[in-house]
What does this fold into?
Amino acid sequence: MANTALFVAAILTIGIGAVHSWLGERRLIGPLLSPQRRQGILASSTFARQVLRFAWHLTTLAWWGMGAMLVALVSSPLDGQDRTVLLIIGLTFLLTGTVILIVSRGRHLAWPVFLMIAGLSVVPLLQSSP
It folds into this structure.
């Protein structure tokens, strides 16, 4: 059960990263950076536009890295350090989901996915003792 939970959390993490990059590029970053919509520093600075786009997609890379860490933790019994890593991952996604829920007033579709990842990430901590 614990390994399955981590695999599902990893798949959700990798999936939400892919959706974040794809939809964000199509519906937010691309339109925001289009020549017709640029304002302020985005109108005058190629560097600012590149930083904004890279920062958006680097978030996806970070989530993919966390997904890979979840998969890596499946390969052997959890030690104290592994348990700490899972707790940090779970808390990070709990905080992310909670902030998205509050700030978007529930309208952003990602908050339940982040809360599922948070819950699934800590399943092994609830099932085994150190």
In short: Helices lie at 2-33, 41-44, 46-72, 80-104, 111-127.
